[in-house]
């Protein structure tokens, strides 16, 4: 079953990994082929994430050529032969998707990674929360089980994933220390729920964390920064605590000796979302919980800038340049 569809679409193609100039807007791309367990989604918005940059630059290996983008939201316009009976999805459903190829007008997504949006969650928020929301929620549930009474350090506490981590940790009863780069971002971190805020450009984060924790450090540190904060992140983690290093915004962590973990019996985790929701049951469980958090107002998605598809390079530059507060989106309805 399908709606009337055009033969071609517009999308961002990368034929060679490297600098931003390798991202090319192509207007004559054929619509993706829909397999028996796929849905074809007319995307309204796509989310901008660091993983897009890692794929484009070559930090993450991806077979080229490929269509960029890892998440989006829109309306199902075609379903595979086994989708309705197996997954309950149908043409006309408003959904969020976690799949490759979301910087395009249409994307074919495996139904097992498609989340139907409830009326209370807008399509725009659906596109914004899919990857970062599930990443943050699986981390506070599985990378380190956050619970009441714990003290947690969140790096980039005014950012997309960082801001959600703050809110989720507060929801779970933790005390949250947020590290940010500016006074402006400190205000956002405070709105996200941080109990304490450290301006890392002018203040020694480790010294402040130790002061706030009675020299014990944090039960867990969540950091998507990578290389530039890794040593401090490790130092801020208390004995038997957990360092969750989930990103590389400043570069990939290198020259690390595993023996450093034995100093305080620290657990080091380097998670990826896909490995937490690889099974359909896992995806349904975590996405259902995430949507409930949004519906109940336990978390909110802070939206940042909005760009047209032709301006995807500007969006990535804003992300890498630490100019963002909240989630950046690509508007595919223009």
UniProtKB/TrEMBL annotation:
<dbReference type="GO" id="GO:0035925">
    <property type="term" value="F:mRNA 3'-UTR AU-rich region binding"/>
</dbReference>
<dbReference type="InterPro" id="IPR020843">
    <property type="entry name" value="ER"/>
</dbReference>
<dbReference type="InterPro" id="IPR047618">
    <property type="entry name" value="QOR-like"/>
</dbReference>
<dbReference type="InterPro" id="IPR013154">
    <property type="entry name" value="ADH-like_N"/>
</dbReference>
<dbReference type="GO" id="GO:0070402">
    <property type="term" value="F:NADPH binding"/>
</dbReference>
<dbReference type="InterPro" id="IPR036291">
    <property type="entry name" value="NAD(P)-bd_dom_sf"/>
</dbReference>
<keyword id="KW-0521">NADP</keyword>
<dbReference type="InterPro" id="IPR013149">
    <property type="entry name" value="ADH-like_C"/>
</dbReference>
<dbReference type="InterPro" id="IPR011032">
    <property type="entry name" value="GroES-like_sf"/>
</dbReference>
<dbReference type="GO" id="GO:0005829">
    <property type="term" value="C:cytosol"/>
</dbReference>
<dbReference type="Pfam" id="PF08240">
    <property type="entry name" value="ADH_N"/>
</dbReference>
<feature type="domain" description="Enoyl reductase (ER)">
    <location>
        <begin position="18"/>
        <end position="330"/>
    </location>
</feature>
<keyword id="KW-0560">Oxidoreductase</keyword>
<dbReference type="GO" id="GO:0008270">
    <property type="term" value="F:zinc ion binding"/>
</dbReference>
<dbReference type="Pfam" id="PF00107">
    <property type="entry name" value="ADH_zinc_N"/>
</dbReference>
<protein>
    <recommendedName>
        <fullName>Probable quinone oxidoreductase</fullName>
    </recommendedName>
</protein>
<dbReference type="InterPro" id="IPR002364">
    <property type="entry name" value="Quin_OxRdtase/zeta-crystal_CS"/>
</dbReference>
<dbReference type="GO" id="GO:0003960">
    <property type="term" value="F:quinone reductase (NADPH) activity"/>
</dbReference>
């Amino acid at each position: 079953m399908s709606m009337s569809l055009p033969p071609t679409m517009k999308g961002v193609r990368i034929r060679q990994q490297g600098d931003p100039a390798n991202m090319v807007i192509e207007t004559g791309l054929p619509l993706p082929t829909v397999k028996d367990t796929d849905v074809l989604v007319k995307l309204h918005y796509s989310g901008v994430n660091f993983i897009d940059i890692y794929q484009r630059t070559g930090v993450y290996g991806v077979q080229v050529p490929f269509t960029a983008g890892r998440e989006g939201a829109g309306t199902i316009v075609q379903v595979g032969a086994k989708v309705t009976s197996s997954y309950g999805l149908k043409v006309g459903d408003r959904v969020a998707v976690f799949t490759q190829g979301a910087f395009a007008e249409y994307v074919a997504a495996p139904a097992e990674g498609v989340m139907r949006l409830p009326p209370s969650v807008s399509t725009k928020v659906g596109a914004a929360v899919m990857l970062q929301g599930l990443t943050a929620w699986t981390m506070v549930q599985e990378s380190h089980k956050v619970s009441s009474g714990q003290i947690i350090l969140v790096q980039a506490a005014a950012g997309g994933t960082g801001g959600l981590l703050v809110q989720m940790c507060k929801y779970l009863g933790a005390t949250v220390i947020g590290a940010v780069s500016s006074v402006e971002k400190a205000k956002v971190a405070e709105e996200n729920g941080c109990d304490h805020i450290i301006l890392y450009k002018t203040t020694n984060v480790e010294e402040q964390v130790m002061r706030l924790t009675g020299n014990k450090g944090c039960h867990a540190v969540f950091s998507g920064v990578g290389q530039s904060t890794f040593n401090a992140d490790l130092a801020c983690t208390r004995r038997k605590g957990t360092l969750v290093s989930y990103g590389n915004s400043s570069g990939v962590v290198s020259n690390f000796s595993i023996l450093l973990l034995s100093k305080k019996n620290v657990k080091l985790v380097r998670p990826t979302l896909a490995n937490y929701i690889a099974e359909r049951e896992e995806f349904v469980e975590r996405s259902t919980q995430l949507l409930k958090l949004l519906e109940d107002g336990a978390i909110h998605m802070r939206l940042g800038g909005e760009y047209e598809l032709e301006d995807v390079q500007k969006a990535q530059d804003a992300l890498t340049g630490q100019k963002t507060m909240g989630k950046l989106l690509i508007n595919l309805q223009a």
